[in-house]
Write a sequence for this structure.
């Protein structure tokens, strides 16, 4: 049974004891004053957990934060936008460590209590001459209403602020979960980074939090597919400071499951916001694969369809083209039998038993013309399901991603 | 050592004893007279071999031709364009069998001596009322100069005729190989079909021909990547009638290797023509992966880079964006060490040891602005290499593939 959660204001500062701050230091663009450096800080010690990109090329801040996170005691997160600090070698590692150190010192934290994130262009050294003065200013700006400022500062070409906060009853205790994110691949050329920061005042054990975040990300951010590219910097971090009180929630308990459900709700909302904000995106498509032999087969089919350039182009053109969908299913490597496959747009069958259904084409086109619709693929092989949230691929997307020359010009490297 | 081959005229009719024919039967578009039905016929018995799409959704003609090919004695190929006869159920199988039968009868062949191919839209029954009269006309049009007519009739939105014929010295004997093809994925919406027909007068054993075609396709058509979509209908067929004389060439012999090399030369030329004719394509990119641990790793890296929408968009924009390339390498699942990776555009390093190289950005941009260039990735992990031939992804490609509505209108189903 799905729980209902009450939405509250404040983003990552909604849970008790969390402060936020943001400043501009000119990394995004030296010529404007958009904020590009953010800090989240808990006034009390935290347990923490995170998940990271599985790309084998990992940005320096990912490596540094993975090391810092080992003790699961992050209490602050510092993040910059405009430069990913990826493919920057040993200097990049030093720069990421410096960012943690320069925040830890004034806040009286250990360096390993600070998580570091970067999002932006790959392969260019972090401009520490601009970032260092910014870091010095950040702690002075910390305040209990800073959630939205943090959400804004991590945006690159996102067009909407992505934040959410809810209250939930976990083990009978009222707790809050706050979170913000910036969007994925499609939104930004090479700045192909998804960042998500979550705060909560729930009183969680380290093992409960660790397991919970892996499961909740699998049910949310791993279910979105915009352009099939996986970033070097993707990071989800959760900080839990226990200020809501109540007994510590242990792994395997009913309260731990309740927390996972609430966390997954929060992450799924943010993941869907990232998809919807894919720039130059016209469609939000929910793709449900049903009746696969195995979970992995269902996932293979969903990902093959969601990544097909031809399928995505047809969505952009309002074309209910089930032929392209079935051909992507065919090369997905999942176990299928063509003659069993059903495909429908909302409740209207387009393909039944591998053949064209009798639904008038006009009806299907009317559905495909909507901004948002659901496609259901039933393989009739077994009982495994998988749902993915995805988008069309537009001529404007390609155009938008053709060149980063403007960035190179701004950075003085062009 | 690479052999030099002499190019000759005539396409699939260049080898001795092969005839070709094409007629228009209104499957492409009832309103115009473009040819859309083709026949290749050998005056003498042949040995034959083929390779087919690995898509688990296979078109009816693929299934029928696979069955006919079992004895390796195809002597004729009949092909239509405009309709793929895919996802058409048992009726589709019957229609494909009818096509073979209606050609076999007047030519005095067994049904299983005729290969059948279709290319076009998926999921719509083959209009046999138009195809049957066309089939009746075809044999009467057979002639020894029909090669180019065949190559034209299988085109859909291809803009160039793709045919080639060469002479080669195989086991000391002068033989001819002729071939024609129609292009791949990008060229055509849902009509995502690559067809390639090869004829030769070489005197080959069945086992030599079978092994040879698999190897030659692996070194040619499997090395091209336009949009990452794999069709339901892809087919390569080779007919060898032995009219050049000389002893029969056995598998494992020097002559068999010589033939494989000549065949691969022919297929690679056609494969590259398909890539270059990708409509709305601006760039022909040769991507060489070197120094991988294994052949499979080299292939994984090449395919990840060649399929990345972000990498392809950057090529479209003349942007020498090595950051996107390294991030695709990172998610390719190949064994890599970021700090060993070199990436260069022609002979100019863009990335050395995972870091930005010192080559001025302007120099790299000048190379990326060319119509055709080579990118070399060296992983410095081992000795395995893999080369892939690929293209940019253009806004016009997406626009072109947005809708098949015009097709639906023409077919009277819209």
């Amino acid at each position: 049974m799905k729980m209902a959660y009450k939405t509250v204001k404040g983003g990552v500062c909604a849970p008790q004891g969390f402060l936020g701050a943001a400043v501009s230091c000119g990394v995004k663009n030296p010529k404007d004053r958009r904020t590009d450096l953010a800090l989240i800080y808990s006034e009390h010690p935290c347990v923490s957990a995170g998940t990271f990109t599985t790309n084998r090329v990992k940005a320096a801040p990912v490596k540094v934060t993975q090391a810092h996170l080992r003790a699961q005691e992050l209490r602050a997160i510092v993040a910059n936008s405009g430069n990913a600090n990826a493919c920057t070698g040993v200097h990049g590692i030093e720069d990421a460590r410096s960012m943690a150190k320069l925040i830890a010192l004034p806040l009286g934290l250990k360096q390993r209590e600070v998580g570091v994130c970067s999002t932006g262009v790959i392969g260019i050294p972090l401009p520490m001459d601009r970032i260092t003065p910014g870091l010095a200013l950040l702690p002075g700006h910390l305040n209990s209403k800073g959630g939205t400022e943090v959400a804004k500062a991590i945006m690159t070409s996102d067009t909407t602020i992505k934040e959410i906060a809810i209250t939930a009853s976990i083990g009978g205790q009222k707790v809050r979960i706050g979170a913000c994110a910036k969007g994925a691949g499609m939104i930004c050329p090479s700045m192909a980074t998804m960042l998500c920061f979550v705060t909560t005042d729930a009183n969680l054990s380290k093992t409960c939090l660790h397991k919970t975040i892996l499961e909740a990300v699998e049910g949310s951010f791993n279910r979105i597919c915009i352009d099939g590219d996986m970033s070097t910097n993707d990071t989800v971090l959760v900080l839990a400071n226990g200020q809501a009180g109540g007994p510590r929630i242990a792994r395997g308990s009913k309260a731990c499951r309740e927390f996972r459900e609430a966390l997954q709700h929060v992450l799924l909302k943010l993941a869907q916001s990232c998809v919807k904000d894919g720039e130059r995106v016209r469609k939000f498509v929910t793709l449900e694969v049903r009746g696969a032999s195995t979970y992995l087969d269902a996932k293979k089919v969903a990902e093959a369809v969601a990544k097909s350039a031809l399928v995505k182009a047809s969505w952009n053109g309002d074309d209910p083209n089930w032929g392209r969908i079935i051909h992507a299913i065919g090369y997905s490597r999942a176990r299928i039998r063509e003659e069993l496959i059903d495909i429908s747009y909302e409740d209207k069958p387009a393909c039944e038993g591998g053949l064209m259904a009798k639904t008038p084409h006009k009806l299907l086109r009317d559905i495909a013309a909507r901004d948002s619709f659901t496609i259901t693929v039933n393989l009739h092989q077994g009982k495994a399901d998988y749902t993915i949230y995805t988008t069309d691929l537009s001529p404007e997307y390609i155009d938008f991603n053709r060149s980063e020359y403007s960035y190179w010009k701004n950075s003085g490297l062009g």
